[in-house]
């Protein structure tokens, strides 16, 4: 089946993330079947979907989208037996994931792609008990999956390339922004970056170097305002003025040896310098520094105004 022809999606595990996926797929017009073993799971799930629906309505529902397209199944096997795509969002525990993915694999029609929301396990270590591991991928979302577009897609050693391509295309069709990774890395990309900040924040609080309030304000009133438009690399490309990333690295390269964070920096070799400079040129896509600065400034103003409005109405 082509990704664009999918109509029926199964969500296994319906907590914060599974419920968020359910809301997202419903809003995009899919028929969704969910299963979760907790006795109160259905009530929790319906509360989550109802709470998300006004935001999804404001964003714009797909034709035919309705909360009535949600079915909560009594068993895992019923949930997945007619599915054309399966998203697993059970607790982050390797034994649970291994056992559950094997059960999903056994009950899901042949050739249907099964994706896991895992925050950090590789599919290689999760697909060990599956009879047909070739169709299993990681599709790592961000909370809440019904609003945050990013999904990181990566296969395991026993996943076939077609399944990774199919999943990436399906998520795009389903309205997500996809990063397909060629290699399994624990935590994928965004969680590794997020985790670096998180661990440093915990160190700072533990050592009495900063309060929780100071840490949050340092991001929301600082670099956080630039990141919605430009990621950390293009942001620093602009920190180099007209010399861009090349000047930024030549200027601040020695600071990589300073104790500005507990995470050790790699050696700034010529090769790494060149890769960063070329990468920024590619990411800039022909936009000059002056054009990027103008775009950044417009974005920062737009973001600040939007936040001001949200705060005023809260
Ligand atoms: N919370 C986040 O910000 C976040 C972000 C991205 C990915 N994830 C990943 O999503 C997955 C789910 O996390 P969550 O935050 O939704 O957790 P959660 O605790 O909110 O939900 C987990 C759900 O799984 C159910 N469950 C328990 N055992 C199960 C089983 N054997 N089979 C199926 N369902 C079972 C629970 O009843 C619960 O409803 C994890 O792998 C997590 O790492 C979480």
From TrEMBL:
Domain 3-hydroxyacyl-CoA dehydrogenase NAD binding, residue spans: 9-183
Pathway(s) it belongs to: Lipid metabolism; butanoate metabolism; Amine and polyamine metabolism; carnitine metabolism
Alphabetical list of SUPFAM superfamilies matching this protein: 6-phosphogluconate dehydrogenase C-terminal domain-like, NAD(P)-binding Rossmann-fold domains
Binding site for NAD(+): 13-18
Cellular localisation: Cytoplasm
Domain of life: Bacteria
Domain annotation 3-hydroxyacyl-CoA dehydrogenase C-terminal: ranges: 187-255
Record text on subunit structure and interactions: Homodimer.
Function: Catalyzes the NAD(+)-dependent oxidation of L-carnitine to 3-dehydrocarnitine.
Protein family (similarity comment): Belongs to the 3-hydroxyacyl-CoA dehydrogenase family. L-carnitine dehydrogenase subfamily.
Protein name per Swiss-Prot or TrEMBL: L-carnitine dehydrogenase
């Amino acid at each position: 089946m082509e990704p664009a022809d999918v109509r029926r999606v199964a969500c296994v595990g319906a907590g914060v993330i599974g419920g968020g996926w359910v809301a997202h797929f419903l809003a995009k017009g899919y028929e969704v079947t969910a299963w979760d073993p907790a006795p109160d799971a259905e009530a929790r799930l319906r509360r989550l979907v109802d709470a998300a629906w006004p935001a999804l309505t404001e964003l714009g529902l797909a034709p035919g989208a309705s909360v009535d397209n949600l079915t909560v199944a009594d068993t895992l096997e019923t949930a997945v037996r007619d599915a054309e795509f399966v998203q697993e969002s059970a607790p982050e525990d390797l034994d649970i994931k291994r056992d559950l993915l094997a059960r999903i694999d056994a009950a899901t029609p042949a050739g249907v792609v099964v994706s896991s929301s895992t925050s950090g396990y590789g599919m290689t270590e999760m697909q060990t008990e599956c009879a047909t591991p070739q169709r299993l991928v990681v599709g790592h979302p961000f909370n809440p999956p019904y609003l945050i577009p990013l999904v990181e897609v990566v296969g395991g050693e026993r996943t076939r390339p077609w399944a990774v391509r199919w999943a990436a295309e399906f998520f795009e069709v389903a309205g997500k922004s996809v990063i397909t990774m060629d290699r399994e890395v624990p935590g994928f990309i965004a969680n590794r970056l997020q985790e670096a900040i998180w661990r440093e924040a915990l160190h700072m609080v533990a050592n009495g170097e900063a309060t929780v309030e100071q840490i949050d304000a340092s991001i929301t009133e600082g670099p956080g305002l630039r990141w919605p438009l430009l990621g950390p690399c293009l942001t620093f490309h602009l920190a180099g003025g007209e010399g861009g990333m090349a000047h930024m690295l030549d200027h601040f390269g020695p600071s990589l040896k300073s104790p500005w964070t507990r995470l050790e920096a790699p050696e700034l070799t010529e090769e790494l310098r060149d890769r960063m400079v070329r990468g920024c040129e590619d990411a800039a896509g022909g936009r000059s520094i002056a054009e990027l600065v103008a775009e950044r400034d417009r974005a920062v103003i737009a973001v600040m105004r939007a936040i001001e409005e949200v705060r005023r109405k809260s």
